Amino acid sequence: MDLFLKTILVPLDKDGWFFVAIAAGITFIMSLIHPNLGWACALVTAWIAFFFRDPDRITPKNENLIISPADGRVSRIVKSSPPEELELPEGDWTRISIFLNIFNVHVNRCPISGTIIKSHYRPGKFLNASLDKASEDNERQALAIKTPTGLIIPFVQIAGLVARRIRCDVEVGQDILAGQRFGMIRFGSRVDVYLPSGISPQVCEGQLVVAGETVLADIESKSPAWEGEIR
């Protein structure tokens, strides 16, 4: 019971209060019209509060780890260059794509500690975020962070079929810690992380990950990319 309550009774993201207030107002008006309408709207209000939940996370204190920036499922791990607007060398990058459904926590967290060196918002389409071409065609907010050792890690917030609002709370020159909140995408989306050459992913396609907690890769690890299977 305590675990259930800790999962449900968590703080809301700052955007959530506005939507919950509107939904609560509509619920009150509908309840005056008919009790059943009030109950239906109350369920919608509860779901909105659930969507905007923002629980604390326990981030490993290890500067060599690249941490998941989003809750969700690893939809794809492929070789791919970062978005061209970041103006980074093409090289041998590995893209880890994390797809968020409407039931995941949508607050995004920084994958590694360092300084934001690039930030670029690009309008685009709203294709299903699970599709590979969403990386190129969809609305996105691209960021790159530079660690104290000089390593550059790009990561990208991508709007989805339902998502229509990307919020990024960091700017160029800002120092940020791994696991620290940096933004949010509303109502279904995707976040991509790009690993530089020589860094292998330590997650598998189809795996569920937790923002601020799940380790995507270890900079110092020499192990090959992980493989998984359904059991």
Characterize the structure shown.
By secondary structure, this protein is an alpha+beta fold. It has 2 domains: 2-51; 65-218, Glucose Permease (Domain IIA) (Distorted Sandwich), CATH 2.70.70. Helices cover 21% and strands 29% of the residues. The protein contains 4 helices and 13 strands. The chain has helices at residues 2-8, 14-33, 35-51, 134-137; strands spanning 65-67, 72-79, 94-100, 107-109, 114-122, 140-146, 152-159, 166-168, 175-176, 181-185, 189-195, 208-209, 215-218. The strands form 3 sheets. An 8-stranded antiparallel beta sheet has the order 9-5-6-7-11-3-2-12, with no helix packed on it. Helix 2 (14-33) packs antiparallel against helix 3. It is elongated, with a radius of gyration of 19 Å. It starts with a helix and ends in a 13-residue tail after the last strand.
